[in-house]
Amino acid sequence: MSLEELDYELPEALIAQRPSEKRDECRLLVYNRTDGEISHHIFHDIVRYLREGDILVLNDAKVIKARLFFRKAETGAEIEVLLLRQIDENRWISLTRPAKRLKIGTELKHESGVLCARVIAVLEGGERLLELNYDGDLLRILEDIGEIPLPPYIKRKRIESDFNDDEYYQTVFAKNLCAIAAPTAGLHFTESLINELMKNGVSVKTITLRVGYGTFKPITTDNIRNHRMEQEDYFIPRKTATDINKGIATGRRIVACGTTVVRALEDSYYKSGKVKYGWSTADLFIYPGFKFKVTDALITNFHLPRSSLMAMVSAYVGLDRLKEIYRIAIEEGYRFFSYGDAMMIK
Questions:
Q1: How many CB atoms lie within 10 A of CB 117?
Q2: What's the Rg (C-alpha) of the chain?
Q3: Among 21, 72, 168, 285, which residue has the fewest nearby CB atoms (within 10 Å)?
Q4: Where in the chain is the domain with CATH 2.40.10.240?
Q5: What architecture is the 3-63+167-345 domain classified under in CATH?
């Protein structure tokens, strides 16, 4: 399958720069795989489509303030750093900008004085391996001096006093501080909506997938089968695994909230023949031809063209049909990407 097949044209005006004022009042497109029907709603209407007995699975990963602005110790030039993946206590694989200025041995200092970094390797993909120097708890330090790492297509100023990304770019159920991007399909849920679903007999379960570079790394190979997914760690609680496996055996519908949940559940089943409790590492690349074993319905946002997420959703619904859904969504003025509207495929 060629990368070109995952492409589509999107008017720039439809790239959401802010979320809906109320999380569950964004728009919701519902696609029924049985009869091909498409309908248009607000997100809160999802209560009509999640029924008693369903198992709704959420990713409770919380976004780290992993975006930092350092100065080169030698010249004072500003360097932007995105911490991607922790290798051990002090070493992180990182994206840096401008990268060409960072050679092995380059020293970086943060204006706060509480964090320094040194480049100890230049990796094959251009990432830098940084050794961090600090005292105390790194996550607490990042909460104080870091910024939420918004995607580059959100082109607002770094800080806008009238808008709080620290709040809006976290799900209301975020618990485990471990991700560098939000599981964005979950951004649309409110606590009251989740409570309403539970009262209606929907079983709500969580997993934790540390959303990392693997989720948004661009596909650069012409043949997407040659794309290598970056690893992402995930944890499936014992009760979640038990209930999902029982649900599969008894015909209950497993509803994945977001591609990160799909990746964790399908990776676990692919490796073990069931959804397995505990920590594991996902490197599964899902593209057309993949046979889903766990996911019966999917809640997701509208994704970037030529991306691994576009490949995953096209595997779930069919590439031609997905492109038709996207064409209709564009005609209807849906908002795309992380802060955009949602769709449910059932």
A1: 27
A2: 20
A3: 21
A4: 67-145
A5: 3-Layer(aba) Sandwich (3.40)
Which amino acid appears at position 275 of this protein? V
**Is the CB of residue 189 less than 8 Å from the CB of residue 172?**
yes
Regarding pTM above 0.90, the answer is yes
- Of the CATH numbers 3.90.550.10, 1.10.606.20, 2.40.370.10, 2.40.10.240, which one belongs to the domain with range 67-145? 2.40.10.240
Return d(Cα 157, Cα 179) in angstroms, integer: 22
Helix-strand-coil percent breakdown of the chain, rounded to 5? Answer: 30, 30, 45
For 209, the enclosing helix (H) or strand (E) is: strand 203-209
Q: Give residue-wise pLDDT tens across range 131-175.
A: 999 999 999 999 999 999 999 899 876 555 456 899 999 999 999
Pairing outcome for strands 61-63 and 176-179: parallel
* 136 dihedral zone (left: phi>0; alpha: psi -120 to 50; beta): left
Q: Cβ–Cβ contacts within 10 Å for residue 255, how many?
A: 26
CB burial string 8-25: b at 16+ within 10 A, e below = eeeeeebbbeebbeebbe
| Region(s) of the chain under CATH 3.40.1780.10 | 3-63+167-345
Candidates 104, 105, 101, 103; CA nearest to 76 is 101
Contacts of 35 (CB under 8 A, 6+ apart): none
Question: What's the pLDDT tens digit per position in 254-294?
Answer: 999 999 999 999 999 999 999 999 999 999 999 999 999 99
Token code pair at residue 319: 């590439």
Q: Are β-strands 67-72 and 107-110 bridged in parallel, bridged antiparallel, or unpaired? A: antiparallel
Name the one residue in this structure whose structure tokens are 């080169």: 72
